Amino acid sequence: MSFLSQLIAPESTSPSSLKMISLKKSIISRLMLRGETTISELCKETGLSIPTVTKMVNQLLSEDILLEQGKSDSFGGRKSTQYDINPKIGYFLGVDVQGNTVNIGIQNFKNEFVKITERIPYTLENTRESLKVLCGIINSFIDEAQISRDEIFGACVNLTGRINSFKGFSYSYFFFEEMPLSEIIELQIGVKTFLENDSRAMTYGEYCCGVVEKEKNVIFINLTWGLGTGIINDGQLYYGKSGYSGEFGHSPVFDNEILCQCGKKGCLETEISALALERRFKEKLDAGSVSVLKLKKGASFVSMEDIIAAIVEKEDSLAIEIIEEIGVKLGRYLSMLINIFNPELVVLGGPLAAAGSYLYLPTQSTINKYSLNIVIQDMELKLSKLGSRAGVIGACYILRNKFLMML
Question: Which long-range contacts (CB under 8 A, 24 or more apart) does 356-362 make?
Answer without folding.
Answer: 356/312, 356/383, 358/311, 358/320, 358/323, 358/324, 358/327, 359/223, 359/323, 359/324, 359/326, 359/327, 359/330, 360/327, 361/327, 362/324, 362/327, 362/328, 362/331
